[in-house]
Each structure stands twice: as structure tokens, then as C-alpha cells.
Design a protein that fits this description.
Purple Acid Phosphatase, chain A, domain 2, 2 domains, 6-stranded mixed beta sheet, 14 strands, about 20% strand, Calcineurin-like_PHP, Putative phosphohydrolase
């Protein structure tokens, strides 16, 4: 009689629940600073996070993922506060750094340096404090890989990519995890969530510079699930077997977080159910989504002018000024996910461009999967 592999049997019966909170931009009161073009409300970061943690404590989750931008701008006090708070939770938490968490290669009077990050979060994935990426078996048969997408060039400019050493390490880890369900977490987007994102000057900075290299590795290993942040929108994107599930920022409209349930049916097929939730009120911000949506609208004009005057539209400023008022809530609607745009008053080229951001499938049908859906995993 052939011997049964316990690990494979367990994987066939995998069932677990977990949550994702992205881009919380934690800011203690004495560290908060404002910028006139900022779309997010760092002021609500801590009370909003506390509400979410209270809710998650009641949800019987197995673990929590935070895919980067944990702090306002890498401040030591903010990192220390968050690490302490997350270590008090009754379930495991895993994090990766975002560009705001390590804004400089070396530490200074304002923020920590890149290599400092694992020392703050050694209980939250980083068993090796000398390495900026990690892997851990979070449940029997489930392997989490946390990647670092923050690099710096010779001039000190921050880049969004994976270094070659990390890619080599990743291939080795995936080779050793062939019999497991693999979850990957990284801050920068791996699959395009917006039309032309990897080619547009305003969109590509949210993409991983070497996303094709990572996607090739993941596809070859049969990895289906990547969890990202950075873009501050609710979106589920798919490319050649890989789902990139990006979660909007806790501190910007619509203040979302997600709860997932992975279940395995009797035939061994795996399904991932996605539920999205929103923080609707914190002390002093009783109607939080409405206020943050209006803030985003109030500050949208320069952003929309830039979008209209750059490629592919390249409109003269005078023409852009005429269209910008109709786009007051454009980014807020994208951030919320599952929106269907209609701009019948725009000239044909502009109408096609902006309506392409609608939540539709390749055949033009509505595909409302950004907030609540169930994905069949190959």
C-alpha cells in the first residue's frame, strides 16, 4: 500500500481566515505634518487602526498581513509604537516595508534607515534582522514570502524594485516550497491595476520596476496570490495565473481593510473569498468617508491637470482646465473600487481614456470584483 504524504493531504484540506490592512501611515500626534497635496488623513491612523484591530479580534482570523507604508514617513517613534501594538495581538502579524517606512538609505534625525527596518519588526516576520526579506510557514502547508521592494541608487534616489540577490533567494525558496500554498507580500504593485500603469509617468512609480521578472518566477512556481499596497486603491488584478490583490490605504478614502477566507472543496479545489470593510467613523471624524472623499476632491485639481496634460492625452492647459472640474471625484471613485465611469460630455479621445478606468472585463462587461468576490485558484 503506498505511503500517504501528510503534507499533501493537509494542503488538500486547507481552510483558514486572514486579514489585510495596508498603508496605515501611522502617525503619533507629535510627528504629524501636513502637505497641501496630501490625499490621506494621517490624523485618523491610530484610532482607525484600533477600531480595525477590535473588529479582527472577533473574527477568528489566523493571521494579519500589512503590505507596507506602516508609518507616516519612517519616524522612529511611529515604528516603535506600531511594533509594540502589533506584538500585543492574539494572532500573528506579518509586515513588509513600504517606501514611506524607509525613505532614506541611512538613518537620520527624522527617520530610520533601510537596514534598521527588520530590527523593529523581528517578531513580525523578520527572524533574521540582517535580511530585508523573509519566508516563514505561517500555517502547516502555507508558506508566506515577504519581499522588500525598496532599493536606492548610487545617488540615494529611492527605487521600487527587487535586487538580484533577492530574486535568486526567491527562486530557491519557491523550489523548496513546491508542496505548499505560497502567499507573497510586497509593497509595490506587480500586476497593472490601472490602464497604462507601467507606461504612464504618473502610474509607473507605483509598479515594481522589474515586475516582469518577478511575475515570470511566480508563474513558473505556480504561485497565484500576491498582496500589495502603495497605490491606495481597492483593486483585484490578474495576469497569467497571478492575482495581485491591492488594498486601499487605511487613512484615505474609503478607509478599507479586507478579510479573506481560503477554503478547499471536496475535489481539492481552492477558493479565496474576499470581503472588504470600511472604517466609517472615529472620534472627531464622525462621517469619515464623506469628509475624506471631499478632501480628496478639494485637492484633486492639480493632480487632474497633470493627468490631462501628460501622455497619452497631452492636452493644452486651457483645455485641461475645462475638463478637470468633471474629474473632481475621479481618483476617489478609483480608490473605492468597482466603479463604472461615464463621461459623455468629453471629446472622444478623452472619453475613451477615462472610461477605460471602469471596472470592466476585457469584453467590456462589468466586473465588480474589487471589494467582494470569490476567486478560483488554479
Amino acid at each position: 500500500m503506498p505511503r500517504m504524504d501528510f503534507n499533501k493531504v493537509y494542503i488538500m484540506g486547507l481552510n483558514f481566515r486572514f486579514a489585510v490592512v495596508s498603508d496605515p501611515h501611522i502617525g503619533l500626534a507629535h510627528t504629524i505634518w501636513d502637505h497641501p497635496n496630501r490625499f490621506h488623513l494621517v490624523e485618523v491612523s491610530i484610532p482607525a487602526l484600533e477600531l480595525i484591530l477590535e473588529h479582527l479580534n472577533q473574527q477568528n482570523i489566523d493571521f494579519l498581513l500589512l503590505p507596507g507604508d506602516l508609518t507616516q514617513h519612517g519616524e522612529r517613534d511611529n515604528h516603535a509604537w506600531l511594533q509594540k501594538r502589533l506584538s500585543q495581538l492574539p494572532f500573528p502579524v506579518y509586515v513588509v516595508p513600504g517606501n514611506h517606512d524607509v525613505p532614506n538609505l541611512l538613518s537620520n534625525e527624522h527617520s530610520i534607515g533601510l537596514k534598521d527596518f527588520p530590527y523593529y519588526y523581528h517578531q513580525l516576520g523578520y527572524d533574521n534582522p540582517d535580511q530585508l526579506y523573509y519566508t516563514t510557514e505561517i500555517l502547516p502547508g502555507v508558506q508566506l514570502i515577504g519581499l522588500n521592494s525598496n532599493q536606492f541608487d548610487a545617488s540615494g534616489k529611492q527605487l521600487g524594485c527587487l535586487d538580484e540577490q533577492q530574486l535568486v533567494w526567491l527562486e530557491q525558496v519557491l523550489q523548496e516550497s513546491q508542496d505548499k500554498l505560497v502567499l507573497v507580500m510586497v509593497h509595490h504593485n506587480v500586476v497593472e491595476h490601472l490602464p497604462y500603469q507601467s507606461r504612464h509617468p504618473m502610474g509607473r512609480r507605483y509598479m515594481l520596476d522589474n515586475a516582469p521578472a518577478l511575475l515570470k518566477i511566480l508563474k513558473q512556481a505556480g504561485v497565484n496570490l500576491v498582496f500589495t499596497g502603495h497605490l491606495h486603491v481597492q483593486d483585484v488584478a490578474y495576469h497569467e495565473g497571478v492575482y495581485d490583490i491591492t488594498t486601499g490605504s487605511l487613512v484615505s478614502y474609503p478607509h478599507p481593510y479586507r478579510i479573506f477566507e481560503l477554503r478547499t472543496d471536496e475535489q481539492g479545489q481552492r477558493w479565496l473569498q474576499i470581503e472588504s470593510h470600511r472604517v466609517t467613523s472615529v472620534p472627531g471624524w464622525e462621517n469619515l468617508p464623506q469628509k475624506s472623499r471631499e478632501l480628496m476632491g478639494d485637492r484633486s485639481h492639480p493632480f487632474m491637470l497633470k493627468l490631462l496634460t501628460t501622455e497619452p492625452l497631452n492636452l493644452p492647459l486651457a483645455d485641461a482646465e475645462k475638463l478637470a472640474p468633471s474629474l473632481r471625484y475621479f481618483w476617489a471613485n478609483i480608490a473605492a473600487g468597482d466603479f463604472l465611469f461615464d463621461f459623455p460630455e468629453f471629446f472622444p479621445e478623452a472619453r475613451r481614456y477615462f472610461e477605460a478606468f471602469s471596472a470592466k472585463s476585457s469584453d467590456g462587461e462589468p466586473a465588480l470584483i474589487d471589494n467582494h468576490t470569490t476567486l478560483l485558484l488554479k
